[in-house]
Structures are given as structure tokens and as C-alpha cells.
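hiii, so i know i said id send this last week but things got crazy w the move. better late than never?? heres the sequnce for the chain we talked about at the cafe, plus the structure i predicted for it. fair warning i was half asleep when i ran it
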Amino acid sequence: MMDRRQILRAGLLTPALLTPALALAEQFAGTYRPQAEQIAEGVWIVRGVDEPIAFANGGAIANSAILATEDGPVLFDPGVSREHGLALGAVALDLCGKPVARVYVSHLHPDHALGAAAFSPQIVHALPATRAELERDGNGFTDAMYRLLADWMKGTALVLPQGDLTEGDVIIGGRHIRLIALRGHSGGDLAILDQASGVLLAGDLVFNNRASSTPHADLAQWRLALDRLATTPHRLLVPGHGPLDRDGSAIAQTRDWIDWLEPALRQAVVQGMDMSEAGELPIPPRFAGMKAARYELQRSVSHLYPALEAELLPRL
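okay and structure toks below
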């Protein structure tokens, strides 16, 4: 039996069977146009849009970073699809005059990982836990992105990174970086410190002015990871989502959000709220300017509420 990706490629769906995203794909003319901003010598950020994944944005919601080396650029987080990864690679080639030499995947989530399809698996690297999680969930993520993003995903197949990274200092083409192995947002979260510039690439361990997502979160481990990042000397921080952190506030803001979220949901369970009611909890005014706050609260209810109910409610 053909899966949805094969059907899409074969063009066999009739208009009556098309989902809204696929109906839009009939008139598809979308192209990724990533823009790089230099933030230090030989370091660029490529900003994602501060929105949920949607057909209209092609799923290009995560930040990526490019580091120049003598061997060719290093790409941190290759985007959501093959076409997105190719577009990021073209930007890196234009900036550095050489094709991408190495790709780092910070964690398993599709907006950060599936763009690895644009590159040879031999140059794509991640923590062992990230590879294991992608072996478990990657095909499901890919199918979900095809359903949501349709033609944006053309040619995208799961490419597993080499799960060969360990914490420590690495020299790539004369550039000294430190690999930092953490977990909390997921089972394996890679952060990178560029030692020459002091730029810290934090992946989704840190969100800036954008509410944090929690589909695979261990909040206790996430707090420990944030403590580690906070004590890692750095000058600038590239979060997984949201603008560049220039003043050191994003780590504290991310912790503040999860420190509010967890007890708020625990209290909602104790008060007997169902999931729909918990999703409408009032959000503190200090988060009023945070993008996707209500959206991520409601997602976090779906992610975290069942375990909290099992823990806190009496068995009948």
C-alpha cells in the first residue's frame, strides 16, 4: 500500500480527497528564502518565524546558525525539509565560498532535524540519544510534516545523523568549538559554544520571547540544563526559537515559563479541571509579549496532563 508521501509524489489524490494543506499545494509556489545575519566574526544566525508550523510558513520556524571554517561552513540545525536544508546550504555556500562541511542536529524535533535530508549522512552528526529518538519517531514526524506541509516536503526522507557526538572540545577547519551534551527539552539536547566569538548555540533548551514547547520534555532535567548553560560563559546566545539573546535574559525567561507552567498544571489537576479548562488558564502578565503563549500552553496540557492526573488523582 502506498503511504501519503508516495501518493503526494505520484499526484494521485483527487481534489475531493485533499486536506486544506494539500488543496493549497495544488497552487503551490512556495520557496524558502532564508536570510543570514552576521552576529560575530564567521558566525551567522538564520531566523525562523515565531509561529507554529503551518503550510503558510513552510515549517521554517526554527533558528539555524552557520559557522565559517577553513574546511567549509558548519550548519547547526538544517531545518524542516530537504528543500529547507538545500536553501540553508546555499546560504552557507554564498557566505563562505565552500559547501557545508558538517551538519549538527541539536535534537529530534522535525523543524530542526528533517532538513538533514539535503546532506550526505556522513556529514550529519548528533548525540547518540538524538539518533535513537529519531530512529523511534523520525518516520512518524516525516509523515506528519507531509500531511501538514505537503509540497514543502517534496523529496524529504528521514536521514539519521551519525550518533557519534560526545561532550568536549572539537577543532573543525581551524575553528574551536565546544560540544555540550544535555537533555531536558528532549532526551538528547546538543548545545555548542563557539570559543572565539563566545556565541552559544542553545537549540530548543532556550526560547526567547516565544513560549517553550514540551512534547518530549523532562522539566527537572531541563532546569538542570538551563543551570549548566547559565554558568557557561558566553557573549551572545542563539535560541532555538525567537530573537538573538544579547542581554543574557533568555535562559532565565525560559526557566520562568516552565517554573510557572508545571505548578499551574499541577494545581489545575488538583482543582479537578479537565484538559480543555486547563488550556484556558490565565497566563501571567509578564508573558503577555511572548509569542505562541496560549498555543504552547494548550500543547503542554496535552503533553503533560495525563501523567499529572495519574500522579495526583486518586485511583477509583
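btw The chain has a mean pLDDT of 93. thought thatd interest u
miss u guys!!
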